[in-house]
Design goal:
Order of helices and strands of chain A: HEEEEHEHEEEHHEHEHEHEEE
CATH architecture of the largest domain in chain A: Alpha-Beta Complex
Distance between the termini of chain A: 27 Å
Oligomer: homodimer
CATH class of the largest domain in chain A: Alpha Beta
CATH superfamily of the largest domain in chain A: PurM-like C-terminal domain
Mean pLDDT of chain A: 89
Number of strands of chain A: 14
Strand order of the largest sheet of chain A: 9-11-8-12-10-13-14
Shape of chain A: globular
Number of helices of chain A: 8
Strand content of chain A: 15-25%
C-alpha cells in the first residue's frame, strides 16, 4: 500500500502552530482531534481506521484468535536499524507469530510527554505505518494521553495485536518433548547492543544495527511446509537465556545447548565485553527459537536458513533436571545458563 | 467468581523482600517473572491467563468483533469512588459497550515507575480483577515495563478490549438522523470533580464520588428490548460537550440541547464554580448518551431510568448547521457549546 504521505514528508499538523506536544493535545478536545486526524490517521491510513468511533469493528474470517499486548519504553527513541515506532509494531506482530497466528489487527496507544517535538512524533508515526504495511497488519484503533513534562520520557507506545490461527497446529511450551531440537533463527544480541551503543555513545568501525524485524514470514513458511512445530518463542528482554529458561520451566524439561553453535557477531561480542554483558542475556527484536522433533530439524533449519543464513541448530531438549538450561562451553565444560536476575539492560524495548 | 485472595489481602509477593518496584522488575528476568506470577496472576486469576505464552488464544463464538484501546494516566491513583485500576477496566469495557459489543477479553499492560510501592500495585491489580469480574470480561494477556524514577508517575496502565457483536444493530454516528432524541444516562461531572477535588485538596461536606462504572448493563438492556439504537457514546475526556460535538461533526448535523434538562449535582456545580469550569466540559467515566428515533425515546428512557433514575431526554438532532451544538440556557437564550479547545482537566483518566 502506498502512503498518502511519502517517506520523509514533513508533519502535516502545521508545525509553525504547535511544534511541541502540549498538555491540551491530550485533553479530549479540539487539539487532540487535530493531532489524531492529521498525524496518526495520516500515518496509519487504512479503511478500518476511518470510522470515528470508540472502537473498531473487525471482520475476522474464523474462530481461533490470538491476542497479545506490549508497551514500549525504549531509550533512545531512535537507534541504528530502528526506532520505537518500528519496534512497537514488530514486537507485537512477533508475539502473534510466536503463537502461530497470522497478524491481522493492531491498536496503538500513546503516552506523550508535554514538550515532545511534533516532528519526532510524526517520524515515529510514519515508521509505525511502514512497519505495519510490511507486516501486513492494520492499525485500527488508538488512544492518546499527554502527561506533564518530567512524568514521561518523550513517548511511550502500547500496541495490542489480534491474529488468526489459520491452521490446526498447537504451538505451546506444553508440547516441547525430550529429544526436540532447538533451532535459533539467526545471530543474537544485535538489538540490545545497538540501543546500548547509541545510549552509551560507544562507537564501532561498523555500527551495530538492531535486528528489529517482523518474524511472520519464516514462521508461516515452517507451518506451510507442514513442519510439526512444537513451540516458538522470540528472544526479547532477557535474551536467549530468558527464552530457554522460560521454555525449560514451562515444559518441565532440561535444555542443553552448545555455545559454539550460537551465532554472535564479532562487534556484538566486543561491545558485550566492554559493557560486561553475556550476549545470551542481551535483547533481540527479530530472532526466535523453534522447538521441533529431531526428525524434522533438518528440514526446518533449511527453511529458516532461507530467511537468515545464520540460523542454526543450537541444542536439544532432554529429560534431565526440570527447568535447567546448560551450555557446553568452547573448551568442553558445562555451565548453567540462568535466568537473568537483575536489570542488565533497562528500557531496551 | 471468587478470588483466591480476598479483598484487602496483603500483596502475595513478599513485601519484606521488595517493598518497592525496582528496575529489575521490568528486565525480563526472574524478578519480572515473580512479579507477574505473584501479583498479576493472583489478582486476575482466570483460566485463559494460565498458559505461559506470549499471547492468549481466544475462543470467540462468532465473526463480528470489536477492538478498542485506552491508556490511563489519572492523577492521583486513588480518588473517591475509584482508582486507576477500576478506571482502566471500566474505561475500555465502556468503549466496547458504546459499539454495542458484549465485553469478552482484555489485555493489561503496565508502565511502572521505579520506586512504586509494591502494596500500591497490589491494590490496583486487585481493583482491576474485581472490576473485570463485575463487567464479565477476562484479562487474558499482559505486559510489564519499568522506567527509571522521574520518567513516569507511579503507574500507567493500558487496556485493550475485545467484544462480540451479538446482534445485527448498526451503532454508528453515521446512523444519527434529524429528529433523533438525545438521551443522557445520568448526572454528569462527578468523575472529573472527584479527581480534581482530591488533587486540589478541596473538601466538601459530602465528598463527590466518581461515576466510574461499567455501562454494559443499560446498553444491553436497550438492545435486548429491541430499541433501534442509532448511536451510543460515553462522555469521558472533554465531557458531554466533546461527546455532542464529535457526534454532530461525524453525522454532519446540529444538536440542540436544553441546559435545564441536563442533570448536574449541586456539589459538582459548586466545585465547577470554584475551579472556573463548565460541568459540560468535565469528564465522566460511567455516563453515556444514546441517539434514538423520537418514537423510541420514551421506551428507551424508561429502560435507562431503571439503571439511573437521573437519566434524561436532553435534546434533539436537527438539520441546522452541520457540526454545531447549541444549548438553550435557563433564561431562554441560546449558546453555542464548543468542543473544549484547551486542556481544562489534565490527567483525568
Amino acid at each position: 500500500m502506498i502512503k498518502p504521505n511519502p517517506i520523509g514528508a514533513s508533519c502535516p499538523l502545521p508545525i509553525a502552530d504547535h511544534p511541541k506536544i502540549l498538555m491540551a493535545h491530550g485533553g479530549g478536545g479540539r487539539m487532540m482531534a487535530q493531532l489524531i486526524d492529521r498525524v496518526f490517521r495520516a500515518a496509519f491510513d487504512n479503511r478500518d481506521l476511518q470510522t470515528t468511533h470508540d472502537g473498531a469493528v473487525l471482520d475476522i474470517p474464523q474462530d481461533r484468535l490470538v491476542m497479545t499486548t506490549d508497551s514500549f519504553v525504549v531509550r533512545p527513541l531512535f537507534f541504528p536499524g530502528g526506532d520505537i515506532g518500528a519496534l512497537a509494531v514488530n514486537g507485537t506482530v512477533n508475539d502473534l507469530s510466536m503463537c502461530g497466528a497470522q497478524p491481522q489487527y493492531l491498536s496503538a496507544s500513546f503516552i506523550l510527554e508535554e514538550g515532545l517535538e511534533m516532528e519526532t512524533l510524526w517520524q515515529i508515526a510514519q515508521s509505525m505505518g511502514r512497519a505495519a504495511d510490511t507486516a501486513g497488519i492494520h492499525i485500527v484503533t488508538g488512544d492518546t494521553k499527554v502527561v506533564e513534562r518530567g512524568h514521561g520520557d518523550g513517548i511511550y507506545i502500547n500496541t495490542t495485536g489480534i491474529g488468526v490461527l489459520e491452521h490446526d497446529a498447537r504451538i505451546s511450551p506444553a508440547r516441547v518433548k525430550p529429544g526436540d531440537a532447538v533451532l535459533l533463527s539467526g545471530n543474537i544480541g544485535c538489538h540490545g547492543m545497538a540501543v546500548m551503543a547509541q545510549r552509551e555513545n560507544l562507537t564501532f568501525t561498523s555500527p551495530i544495527q538492531s535486528d528489529c524485524a517482523p518474524l511472520a514470514a519464516p514462521v508461516m513458511a515452517l507451518l506451510k511446509a507442514g513442519i510439526d512445530v512444537h513451540c516458538l518463542r522470540d528472544a526479547t528482554r532477557g535474551g536467549l537465556a530468558a527464552l530457554l529458561n522460560e521454555i525449560a520451566t514451562a515444559a518441565g524439561l532440561q535444555i542443553s545447548c552448545r555455545e559454539t553453535a550460537i551465532p554472535v557477531d564479532d562487534a556484538v561480542h566486543g561491545a558485550c565485553e566492554i559493557l560486561g554483558l553475556d550476549p545470551l542475556h542481551v535483547a533481540n527484536e527479530g530472532r526466535f527459537a523453534a522447538f521441533v522433533a529431531a526428525k524434522d530439524a533438518g528440514h526446518a533449519l533449511e527453511i529458516m536458513k532461507q530467511y537468515n543464513e545464520q540460523a542454526a541448530l543450537i541444542g536439544t531438549v532432554t529429560n534431565g533436571k526440570p527447568g535447567m538450561v546448560t551450555v557446553q562451553t568452547p573448551i568442553g565444560g558445562q555451565r548453567i545458563l540462568d535466568m537473568p536476575s537483575g536489570e542488565l539492560l533497562p528500557r531496551i524495548c
